[in-house]
Amino acid sequence: MAGAQPWKRPELVEQPELKELNDELHDLRLDAGFPSARAIRDRIGADAQGYWIVTHQAVLDAFQKPDLPQLGRLELIVRVLAEDARRSDVDGEVDRFKLLWKQAVRETVTQASVQPPVDTTASFSGDHVEGDAHTFDDSREQATQDPDQGASQESSAGTETRTDDDQAAARFHYAQESLKGLIINAAQVLWDDKDALRVFLGVVRRSGGFARMADALEERRPANATFYGVESREFEVDRSPARLELVTLRRCLDRHRLKRKWSFTDMEAQTGVSADAWIRWYTGDELPEREALVGFSHMAGLTLEDHVLLLGLWDAAHDVLEAREHSVASARGISFDEAWATRDPATPRMWMLAGVSGDGRTVYGPDLASGTAPAFVIAGPAKSGRSTALVNTARSLLAAGTRLVLAAPKPSPLRELADRDGVLECFTRDDIKQGSLKEILSAATPEEPVTVVMDDAEFYEECDAWRLLRSLLQRGFDEGTALVVGGDEEKMGSGFRWLDKVKRAHRGLLLSPQKWNAGDLIGIRTGDAISGNRVTPGRGWLHLGDGKLLAVTVPQ
């Protein structure tokens, strides 16, 4: 077969990250049996109008050109090759290549921004720049003059060399030109996709780097400054207090949009909301109209779970933005005592405080004496505020008159509550004996309940009392017992002997979730919609078993 052969690899000695990406791509094609470019193109398929989504020449370019391939194109190629190579985790393979691509992007930007220019004369045309630009022009002419002439000038001038200011000016200007080049190259790649181009340019014009570049060029503008011709004040946009919620909402929308291969023009036709409005919502920190999301959900035929998640994210962002409009103090600094004081005095005895709304005026939490199981999960990566959330849980239960058993196998703020009235025991080892726990819980009744609050629960996967913990989840309502577990999101997801029973409660708090399936721990599907963001201590997503995901802040 003509296509069943290796393809020539580009020379990428000076770009090790891009070389690694390219080498891995060639190796994946080898494992897939050396499919031809046309075979890969055919497997990717055509769009609704019958045009190839990725042409065979574009496939060849991704393998053979010494340039960074488009991410969307790369993902499609990798998915086809991974399937042909019978990889067990195709999505994981795509994610691995996305990580390699991001590393190559950082390498490209770094090299363009910090490497000294060899010859930048091509960046200028027409007359020399007046004012401060003469400094750079003079230094450029020195750097590119004939070596012998330069030597004679150096001899006649003694030890005179370029000053640090000259070098800094050269580097600064080269960084500007490199940024300009990156923007232009990306725009050229997106030229045929007008929707994508408009989104890209909207993001660029609002970026801090472009704004600083525009400011500098207002003061010292080269002859070909028509590309800029702006002042950054035109593009200043206040950072939204609901940025986390808005980004998550856009990711959820984008997942469904790309799945259906809708352009923004298609979305206008489907929902009746203008393409310009959709693009504005995508490129700025602006909340879409709720009716637009309802229309999108209806036309896309979303499942009930996806529909509820989409509107739940909108509600979360709306709450935060509404709080700003009313100039209410941010909930980020609210204390436990302040949050506890805002609860409904009629809350049940086993109600616990899990988080507060964006405006700080509403508190949320579950009643452990009701639901599908007497349990609640608090999960998140390190430094996400998990222990603080557990302490709030324990304090709220104690304040309501519920007795506690604490378990903290590692140093934890939870241990500091060991001497509080109502705390029956605090286990600090990585094992809990069946007999000891059984004796303590024997004092529990529905009228005088006892709740076990456990930090770093993954350490108790094989503890001696695991059967009792599982039994507690099965008969807790009748016996007056409940369980609150906190732990590392990834480790808790690996499977405990008794954790599946905790999951049946279908409620919990995810703090800065990182994994796409983190929602399984609290009984709701989340996918990529809320995962993978930067860890923000005390910010999380709460599910109370009603199918609605709430953005909350943990009191400090």
CATH domain class name of the largest domain: Alpha Beta
Q: What is the strand content?
A: 5-15%
What gap, in angstroms, lies between the N and C termini?
A: 66 Å
Largest sheet: 8 strands, mixed
| Whole-number mean pLDDT | 77
Estimate percent helicity.
40-55%
**CATH-assigned homologous superfamily of the largest domain:** P-loop containing nucleotide triphosphate hydrolases
What oligomeric state do these chains adopt?
single chain
CATH topology of the largest domain: Rossmann fold
What structural class do helix, strand and pairing data support? alpha/beta
Which residues form runs of ≥5 with pLDDT under 50? 113-162, 218-238, 326-331
How many helices in DSSP terms?
21
- The dominant shape is elongated
| Gyration radius, rounded | 30 Å
Number of strands: 10
- Strands ordered across the widest β-sheet: 5-4-6-7-3-8-9-10
Word description of this protein:
This protein is an alpha/beta fold and 556 residues long. It has four domains: 16-114, no CATH class; 121-136 and 165-235, no CATH class; 243-325, 434 Repressor (Amino-terminal Domain) (Orthogonal Bundle), CATH 1.10.260; 340-553, Rossmann fold, CATH 3.40.50. It has 21 helices and ten strands. It has helices at 16-31, 37-44, 56-64, 71-84, 90-114, 133-144, 147-157, 164-189, 194-205, 208-219, 243-259, 264-271, 275-283, 290-300, 304-325, 336-341, 386-399, 434-441, 466-479, 489-492, 499-503, and strands at 355-356, 363-364, 375-380, 403-407, 423-427, 450-454, 481-488, 508-511, 539-543, 549-553. The strands form two sheets. Strands 5-4-6-7-3-8-9-10 form an eight-stranded mixed β-sheet. A hairpin with a 6-residue loop joins strand 1 (355-356) and strand 2. Helix 2 (37-44) packs across helix 4. The longest helix has 26 residues, at 164-189.
